[in-house]
Amino acid sequence: MSKDKVCIHWYRRDLRTTDNTALYHALDSGVPVLPVFVFDRKILDQLEDKDDKRVNYIHSVITDLKADLEEKGGSMYVYYGAPRGAFQELFDTYDVQAIYTNEDYEPYARERDDDIAGYAENKGVEFHTYKDHVIFAKDEVVKSDGDPYVVFTPYSKVWRQRLSNHPPEIWSSAYNLHKLYQCKPMDMVSLEDMGFRPNEFPYPPERPDEELIRDYAEQRNYPGKEGTSRIGVHLRFGTVSIRKLLERTREWSHTYVNELIWRDFYQQILWHFPYTVEDPFREKYAAIPWRDAEKDYQAWCEGKTGYELVDAGMRQLVATGYMHNRVRMLVASFLTKHLLIDWKLGERFFARYLMDYEMASNVGGWQWAAGCGTDAAPYFRIFSPDSQLEKFDKGRTYCHEWLPEMDGKNYPVDRIVDHKEARQRALDTYKKALDGS
Asked: Tag placement on the chain: N or C end, fewer CB within 10 Å?
């Protein structure tokens, strides 16, 4: 019995039909397209929380996306297990002509893709990858000698020049869905099948509000105000197109676009320097003798440090999967400088709870806070939690929302460390380690 000829569009972090680069090229191939999504056990088995908000979100998005494809006469092959197992099953069932997918720069994703590309090659099947989750790919904004930029400011200038000369193309993938492989609806794995529990949780809107973006530069640093788009989760999983987001917002706010440039910058850093997932970008910072202070670390995790803005941020994170960016910088600085605890512990805690967790940006941000990354803040730049509170939450709007024990400006939680003493300890520790003495 002959097998049906298909080409595969492998969905990963591009969960949409609109302006999807790989999906467009798959649909343009002339071969019916079978969309595929793999709930990868290697990733899921590492998750500690069985009501994980991100798994719930992805499952909800895939359910809706599959239904949309079925309205066009197609469906989606959804697999729970290892990617290699999914493709073995697909190759056994169909006459696979080619695989189309969008790039992912994370180290595990690169290993996974190399494995599937090798498997496909052994079967005589081409494996095509495309730029989709960034505006400019890993080697598109580089120095004249081809080396990557490791400082943000010159990178951003070249990025903006390239945008003027080479604006990104919008792909009309959603208009070609009649070219899907026509079939009956396929099975959908449930959350329970994967060992997870449903979690009813409100997700931020996919379209940023124009007025909010226009006021972004003035409002973004105040956690008690609705001054940020919270669109990070949609960029992380590709439920919105970063190209369309840029197209809508580039005339509204220079500062907002700068945040999109930071995102591209950290993505290319991760690609060129994958060791930064575990080790400092600036190798000499590996000499910092981080404290083994479990009690202090737990106080930070639980939002019980005695510093209002730090505690409010940590409690918001655990409760909602989100933390305001200004507060993220403060709590990261507090852990690495005030408590002298390894930035990797903080990065992993954020990885557990952040809805919009993005490895490249998270690692980059934590190393910036610790002073060991690209474009690093000097080690002697240490945030004062009290100054940050007075500057960005003077009326305690944000703190009162997340710290029910607060009474006016009174916060009856003992401080686990004195700011002045902690600052001096950090300065002395960093200096001694970096001087090699």
From this structure: N
In the block, which residue shows the tokens 């686990």?
416
Alpha-carbon 71 to chain mean position: 30
Burial class (CB in 10 A: 0-12, 13-18, 19+), 423: middle
- First-to-last CA distance in the chain? 74
Is 8 strand, coil or helix?
A: strand
Residue (of 333, 436, 324) closest to 378 by Cα position: 333
> What's the pLDDT tens digit per position in 89-124?
999 999 999 999 999 999 999 999 999 999 999 999
- The contacts of residue 204 (CB under 8 Å, 6+ apart) are 229, 230, 231, 233, 234
What are the CB-based long-range contacts (under 8 Å, 24+) for 88-92?
A: 88/119, 90/8, 90/34, 90/36, 91/123, 91/125
The tokens for 135 are 């505006």
Task: Give the pLDDT confidence of 174-221 residue by residue, as tens digits.
Answer: 999 999 999 999 999 999 999 999 987 777 778 888 899 999 999 999
Q: How far apart are CA 395 and CA 268, in angstroms?
A: 39
pLDDT at residue 377 in the model: 64
Map out the domains of the chain with their CATH numbers: 1-132 (3.40.50.620), 133-168+211-272 (1.25.40.80), 275-435 (1.10.579.10)
pLDDT at residue 437 greater than cutoff 60: no
